[in-house]
Amino acid sequence: MEIPLQITNRNLRLTDAIASEIRKRAEKLEKFHDRITRCKVVVESPHRHSHQGKLYNVQIKITVPGSEIVVKRNPHEDLYVSIRDSFSAARRKLEDYARRRRGEVKQHNNAQPARISSIFPERGYGFISTKDNEEIYFHENSVVNRNFKHLAIGMEVRFAEEKGDKGPQATIITII
User: Mapping DSSP to helix (H, G, I), strand (E, B) and coil, where does residue 57 land?
Assistant: First the structure.
């Protein structure tokens, strides 16, 4: 890290063991992205409810070239669990960011344009027509973001095709 780790505490006292745990986990983040410029960790006890006990929240802000990654998890009763969960989420976000920067995000380059030609909502499937007037079957689970109920005849979509048991079928349908 170009700028040293910054640890802030609110509504609680940080012991040396907790600060050491945070430092150790922050150093491990550099394995997943080598150009971290700054890492700020805020440890707080936001609520003081007597019926629930003390809750701890750990927020992490990581600055990398061209972006800032923020991790904010739900409070937890165990401070060490909250630290672990927050740093695990930060690691996953850093890995995703690094993959996107390297261009390793999965692309569906063979996506073709089409229109919805018929829908059978009660049965959970429909058909699309390609520009060559080919009818291709699709199942409701093939629709990205589970937007099957929002489809209408004539809507423009993009799809990826594969060979099914009874002919071609659309495996991924994205509404344009």
Answer: strand
**CATH placement of domain 6-102:** 3.30.160.100
DSSP string of 68-99?
EEEEEPPPBSSHHHHHHHHHHHHHHHHHHHHH
Residue 88 has pLDDT above 90, yes or no: yes
Tokens of 10: 């609110």
Q: What type of residue sits at position 56? A: Y
Instruction: Write the pLDDT tens digit of every residue in 128-157.
Output: 999 888 999 999 988 887 778 888 999 999
Domain ranges of the chain: 6-102, 112-175
Domain 112-175 has CATH 2.40.50.140: yes
Angle, CA of 142, 144 and 146, to the nearest 5°: 85
The answer to whether the CB of 70 falls within 8 A of the CB of 58 is no
pLDDT band at 104 (very low <50, low <70, confident <90, very high): low
CA distances from 106 to 96, 110, 143 (A): 11, 12, 17
Could you tell me which residues are beta bridge partners of residue 136?
128
CA distance 38 to 61: 8
Instruction: Count each helix (H run) and each strand (E run) in the chain, helices first.
Output: 2, 11
Which residues are CB-neighbours of 88 under 8 A, at least 6 positions away? Answer: none
